[in-house]
Amino acid sequence: MAARTKARKRALDLLFEAEARGVNVGDLLAERLDAPVTEAPLNPYTATLVEGVVAHWRDINELLNTYSQGWPVERMPAVDRAILRIGAYEVLYSDEVPDKVAIAEAVALAKDLSTDESPKFVNGLLARLLQVKPTLA
């Protein structure tokens, strides 16, 4: 598994864990950076993703709500919410990877970790965000 793919998975784990535990994801990230719970420390790209999602949290959620066509963020499975937040951050706010790679990586996470319908939903919603990206400046 490529380093960035692993970093995305770890970012997903942090976002999911923070929501499940009802803690601030930024605080959880800081805690894990100070005292890792795994043998390997967090990849710097994991921190970049989580920090980016946190920095754009409100805008990302608003855009996901706007373009998800009848599926408010609160109704989405928690795993899908985390995947979509990471994907939206990479597509809309990051220049680290090409947009299509970010979408493909998000779809792969959905295939591995969510429902049978999730990959298509994640792909469609992130593709829509990519389509409207030029109008969001």
TrEMBL record:
GO cellular component: cytosol
MF GO annotations: RNA binding
GO biological process, one term: DNA-templated transcription termination
Domain called NusB/RsmB/TIM44: residue spans: 6-130
Function text: Involved in transcription antitermination. Required for transcription of ribosomal RNA (rRNA) genes. Binds specifically to the boxA antiterminator sequence of the ribosomal RNA (rrn) operons.
Family: Belongs to the NusB family.
NCBIfam families xrefs: nusB
Protein name per its UniProtKB record: Transcription antitermination protein NusB
Naturally occurring in which organism (per UniProt): Nostocoides australiense Ben110
